[in-house]
Amino acid sequence: MASLAPPPNPDTRQASVTRTVHSIARRLRRWRNKRRASPGWTIAVALILAVMLLPVITILVLAISPSAGVWQHLVSTVLPGAMWTTALLLLGVGVLTLVVGTGTAWLVTMHRFPGRAIVDRLLVMPLAMPTYIVAYCYVELLDYAGPVQAAVRSLSGATGPRDYWFPDVRSLPGAILVFSAVLYPYVYLSARASFVQQSVCALEVARTLGRTPLGAFWSVALPLARPALAAGMALALMESLNDLGAVQHLGVETLSASVYATWLQRSSLAGAAQIATAMLMFVVLLLAAERLARGQASSQHTTGRYRSIPFQDIEGWRGYAAAGLCLLPFIVGFVVPASVLMGHAIRHHREAIAGGFWLAAANSLFLAALVAIVAVLLALILAYATRTAANSFTRPAIRLAGIGYAIPGTVLALGLLVPLAALDNAVDAVLRSSIGMSSGLMLSGTVFALTLAMVTRFIAVALGSVEAGLERISPNLDAAARALGETAVSTLVRVHIPILLPALGAAALLVFVDAMKELPATLLLRPFNFETLATHIYGFAALEQFEQAALGALTIVAAGLVPVLLLHKAVAGGRAGGGTH
Fold this sequence. Notes:
Layout: H1 10-37, H2 40-64, H3 70-76, H4 78-110, E1 111-112, H5 116-122, H6 131-142, H7 147-156, H8 172-197, H9 200-208, H10 213-224, H11 226-242, H12 245-249, H13 255-265, H14 269-294, E2 312-313, H15 316-347, H16 349-354, H17 357-388, H18 394-401, H19 409-435, H20 447-471, H21 475-483, H22 488-517, H23 520-525, H24 533-542, H25 550-572
Parallel strand pairs: 1-2
Helix pairs in contact: 2-14, 2-17, 2-18, 2-19, 4-8, 4-11, 4-15, 6-8, 6-15, 8-11, 8-15, 9-10, 11-14, 13-14, 14-19, 15-25, 17-20, 17-22, 17-24, 19-20, 20-22, 22-25, 24-25
């Protein structure tokens, strides 16, 4: 008869478990010590930050350099008018986008009316329209030679402009309307996200205390949404400050147009740098105002239960009126310019193709793809550095690295071209003196300079998506991988990147579309004979031949629709514990 094995000793089993726990604890301690000791990620963040801040440092150095009375000339001639016009433009756009975006978001979120679900998606579509393309379309439509004024003259019997009055689209009010029609979705999306996540209980308490639906909106919903509204309006204003093509075509002398004219038309680099400094002041003021508007406002749900939003039904003719009111911004910001583009593209597609459409489209696709890849790669390094080597330097440094999105493209172009040209000249001088050979332009005036400018501007877009993706990955995965002997880099490659692929893809798509429609930086930094769709459109519009660029403009709009609709789905896709709202 076989002998039975002795029963396991409880003390031996407990000792084995204890040894295993101590072994894991030792590995985790070694991992933490290694994290604190490794400077590689901090150095990488410092290098990326230095490149991202290079344009700002260059502008400030140029602005304070001796310039033989240029500043006094600018203060007495260019700056007062440009700053005043820019301030009025931002004020008008801020008020209109706030009213339109907030009003439509409240109607769509809290009310049920005919076509509400479709209206909700249509309201974000103007965001796919670059402002300069919309400006070109409205000038084509409303200018003296356009079809609207031609119809007015035909119906009224007028023979000249003095025989009738018609609002001038090439004016500051025209620019405010055009910008607001395109940029209100920034406020709409921010307000929509805030209203969807607000507590129904707070609104119902306001109603039980005697508030009307409108009173509950003013006293409860609007104050709770203040941080989101401030963020959305700040984005709209920064886009307005960055624009060059629309303000030039509409005859509005903003600071951005003044930088371009002073630099290229008046050949004054110092003057352009000083105007760019004034633009940086506007950026700082906008960021400070947004932070002040956010204040310390915050709201938390005191229950883990979420209830569906109790929609207020709008029936009968009032429901159709509400739908029509919400559709009006979409018609002005998308339907009208898209109709102009479609008409021109159908009638003039042969001229457009013969005029270099395919080459410009290929250049745009190549450049946008390159910018997206580089921006996502650098954003991944920055975001992972805060996870792996978070310290008192990396945290604020990463926030500073994303400031490029707030800097107008004209400022970025000027701030990068000067140091890159200086480096090119230094290398060329060394090669000439040593081997008698010229290096030419290796950095400035190349695709490298253009890519660097766009990455500096759009890395914040990629950084937001990548950080959001990393936050959803449990730190326990890092600990487990490192305890099994993986390094920080191998953990990133083998563990995080496969999980992050959807977030990386979304970040690349957003950067790709932004790079496709970027005009100011592309116009100022592109190599000779390198046309993108944006500069292709700009060139034809400057020659008053926009109809030949309509096919290119329609291509940019079509490319922009996909991320805009995906963004809408992410914002309005639902609230915790609920469905779509």
